[in-house]
Amino acid sequence: MVNVDALNTLARRLSPGAMITDPDLLQSYRQDWSFDPAAGTPIAVVRASTTADVQETLRFANSHNVPVIPRGAGTSVVGGSTAVDGAITLSLERMKSIRVDVSSRTAIVEPGAITNDVKAVAAREGLYYPPDPSSHEICSIGGNAATNAGGPCCIKYGVTSDYILGMTVVLPDGSVAELGGKRIKDTPGLALTKLFVGSEGTLGVITELTLRLIPQPPTPHTLVAFFPLMADAVAAARDITSSIRPSELEILDNAAIKVAEEFLNMELDTDAGALLIGRSDAGNGAETEMKLMSTLCEKHRATATYATDDPHEGELFIRPRYAVYEAFERKGVVIGDDVAVPIDRLPELTDGIADIAKRYSTTIVSYTHAADELTHPVLNYPIGDVAAAESASAARQEIYQLVSTLGGFAATEYGVGQDKRDRLSNSLDPVVSKLNRTIKNAVDPNNILNPRVLIPSSGSTDGI
Ligand SMILES: Cc1cc2nc3c(=O)[nH]c(=O)nc-3n(C[C@H](O)[C@H](O)[C@H](O)COP(=O)(O)OP(=O)(O)OC[C@H]3O[C@@H](n4cnc5c(N)ncnc54)[C@H](O)[C@@H]3O)c2cc1C
User: Fold this and answer.
1) Which residues pair with 248 in a beta bridge?
2) Bridge partner list, 304
3) ipTM score
4) Distance CA 67, CA 185 (A)
5) Nearest protein CA to atom 3 of ligand 1, as residue
6) How does strand 339-340 pair with strand 176-180?
7) 143 closest CA partner among 16, 33, 11
8) Which residues, at least 6 apart from 352, have a Cβ–Cβ distance to it below 8 Å?
């Protein structure tokens, strides 16, 4: 354990007020949105204001063998930014600047900027930053880069990695790597920018990003359709994605419809087996795409379809998709998981999840990004209820087993973090697993950066 004098020496090298060691303040940096009751307590939190602060911290940590947990906004639901006893938590929350360069259609952003603010600043210049994790109002752009975050619009626009042209990243020894640049062809040598995207703070700490922006798309038209069975919604979604590229295509199961209706009271059909939400931002082509989606939904037995080109009504139409999370948040701890099964097996998945929920006397809602076969089962339990937390954990294990029998896998849209690392290790091809470890060892030989996250365990003490 590093001593107080050494920490004080580090504090003096940092921007004023950067280091926190007050035990009360440290508490708020222990957990992320995975709310791990076993989260550790950092020996210190460094709230960096500059790249130099990050360099000083990593140099110190590397020479004293102290693990460092990089932290953006702490919205990881897989323990990516959960604190570790004896480690320094390195928060990027103070580095928030956002500059848009209209001529090159890029944004230069610091990692602590909130994703929604990046979108808003770009929009003021008539430009668009597409990636839309559902947490976009509360997560940071650095966290998005570190987890390669994505959301509903990835069906048409892709994920975070598709918009990162360059970055400044501080390596574990404190040296600074400038990767990529403003142009899409600024890529000499190995594709190192891509290597750091999605590396979950295990290889370096991102202190600046150069983002690609695109012209603002037209306001989307929105369609909702209710189906008697999940299988009908799946058939409609398959036909839709074979014909066009909507800007969003989501399917909610019956449990999700019920929870959304209870929360929103907007006369949703709570007997429906599934609710499909589709959007098109194709400008002049949007009306045609809406008509096609409508026809295909009716072909597959939709009991009711509604379409609108009114932006306010459109926002109302997509509310159920987000309401399930908000409704659960009011009740306590929310666990948003992510799994993937072949789309044809989605009805078996949602039926199986409903059965698991019944056996555990709980509610589990599911919504699916229809184009990429990714489903989020969402659970919740009252804060501090240990028995309910254990029960939720057991239900999750059953969901994973079900997913495996359906030919799917525990997906990682929300990242791997601490929670899914062992699961990932077991499923990785041994050669790929070794390659991951080899790269980690080469970049971070002392294993100080987020040692319990993402990278298959070295079998040692993970740096702690
Ligand atoms: C309600 C809710 C909805 C969500 N919906 C989605 C969704 O739709 N799609 C999705 O992809 N995710 C989603 N998430 C998960 C989470 O929001 C994302 O993973 C997000 O990208 C994390 O950003 P953050 O700033 O909170 O990062 P943190 O939680 O602080 O950190 C996440 C990981 O990134 C690393 N990290 C953070 N900043 C840096 C940096 N500057 N340099 C290096 N490493 C860094 C951390 O060490 C950690 O491993 C959701 C979470 C919640 C709570």
Assistant:
1) 279
2) 226
3) 0.99
4) 35
5) 135
6) unpaired
7) 33
8) 399, 402, 406
pLDDT at 464 over 70: no
Mean pLDDT of 277-295: 97
The binding-site residues of ligand 1, defined as CB within 6 angstroms of any ligand atom, are: 32-33, 69-77, 80-81, 92, 111, 133-135, 139-140, 142-144, 146-147, 149-151, 200-201, 205-206, 325, 336, 413-415, 450, 453
Domains parsed from the chain with CATH numbers: 4-91 (3.30.43.10), 98-215 (3.30.465.10), 221-410 (3.40.462.40)
Share of the chain above pLDDT 70, in %: 98
Residue 463 pLDDT exceeds 90? no
Q: How confident is the model at residue 384 (pLDDT cuts 50, 70, 90)?
A: confident
Minimum CA distance residue for ligand 1 atom 50: 135
Nearby residues of 185 by Cβ (< 8 Å), 6 or more positions away: none
334-359 b/e (C-beta count within 10 Å ≥ 16 → b) = bbbbbbbbebebbbebbbbbbebbee
The angle formed by the CA atoms of residues 366, 72 and 189, to the nearest 5 degrees, is: 100
Give exposure, 419-428, as e/b (b: 16+ Cβ within 10 Å). bbbeebbeee
**For residue 456, what is the DSSP state?**
P
Q: Tell me the torsion sign for CA atoms 230, 232, 236, 239.
A: positive
The helix-helix angle for 346-359 and 230-243 (nearest 10°) equals 150
pLDDT over threshold 90, residue 449: yes
Ligand 1 center from residue 34 Cα (angstroms): 11
User: What pLDDT, on a 0 to 100 scale, did the predictor assign at position 2?
Assistant: 83
Q: What is the dihedral of CA 186, 191, 197, 199, to 10 degrees?
A: -150
d(CA 312, CA 77): 30
Residue 151 and residue 405: Cα distance in Å, rounded? 26
Nearest to 39 by CA among 418, 382, 329: 418
What are 39-65's pLDDT values in tens digits? Answer: 999 999 999 999 999 999 999 999 999
